[in-house]
Amino acid sequence: MKFRFILMLLGWRLRWLGRHNEGFRQQLEHRDVLMQWRTFDGRVARWYHFTPQGVKHGAGLHGAPTITLNFRDADYAFRTLRASGKNQMAFMEGMQAGDIKVEGDPGQLMWFMTLMKFIMPGKKKR
Known about the structure:
It comes from Alloalcanivorax xenomutans. The chain is built from six helices and five strands. The protein has helices at 2-20, 22-28, 74-84, 89-97, 106-114, 116-119, and strands at 33-39, 45-51, 54-59, 67-71, 100-104.
């Protein structure tokens, strides 16, 4: 349940950034990337479509993702995403152990990682 909730919040945040953050919108220029996050069994899945017009997202499996991040199970995914805030190697360690598998264009995953600076809300400047 926690993983499903994080994926939903991520979708809301990405959509909001696509509408309100100029720097984020610049990162979407010339992009047409459909990223899917899911568990190995597909019981928890969500997709995010990045285009110059913004970000759309939806629940479930998409038929034509550009890249898919597969996690062993929902609990593992939640723990890994939570740990990655403090330990950036948590994701790589999961890939090396076979608990996270990437299908599709890995360059798009690297591009998505550049968006991380926008995703976490910052402190308001006065």
